[in-house]
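**User:**
My hope is that you can spare some time for a protein that puzzles me. This is the protein in question:
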Amino acid sequence: MNKLNNLKVLSYDLRKDVVDMIVEAKGGHIGGDMSVIDILICLYFKIMNISPENMDDPDRDRFVLSKGHSVEAYYAVLAAKGFLNIEEVKQQFSKFGSKYIGHPNNELPGIEMNSGSLGHGLPVCIGMALAGKMDRRNYRVYTVMGDGELAEGSVWEGAMAGGHYKLDNLCAVVDRNRLQISGSTEDVMAQDSQIERWKSFGWHTISVNGNDVDALEQAFTEARTIKGKPTVIIANTIKGYGSVVMENKANWHHKVPTQEEYEQIIADFASRKELALRE
């Protein structure tokens, strides 16, 4: 079994951690966690120069989870990388007085900025990338946005600035699961085609299966080779990915599984993990 398949197996272990976290806390954004977790795994285990050992290094790569409401997936990946203790996270997530709050908290190791007020991640990452150019640093900057988030005007101000300053040290990702809290993105605020929109702002564009770690790694590797413009990866994902209980259902944006649903979800994870082990 190669390293990529190991990450596929890991993805189902971390999905279980996320569901356990949400059940214990009695709240959380489970659907978007499931769609984004493969992107986070690929970034932290295959792509970014970031670890608990170098998190204060000025040349470390920077990451901002702009869709901060998917923090449960972020905490699970950070714990797997060694920044956090997963059992502590599960016990304390979203409890009164806990540091493991419902959006990224930069008082925790490995988190660059508090996020979750949608539309802020990309503009902040523009500043980080521009600072890297001005200081002649070698780091790269990454951000993940939700597709519902793209209705925010600040995203497109950031897109315009990124293209203008030719920030080839910047890579943005759109978690394109096509669902948001109120339903289909195309019903709420239509946004196809993503490719043409980002190209018009001077970005290199890549469209990829966002729940395939292998395909994601290839996309991020391509982004590193692009000179003179930033890159956006349109990660076509499935909301609730991993279990038929949740997949492609808008009401799982923010939902706590019943005991029966929990058992089916965990069984689905186990089945898909077994398939990954056989590859």
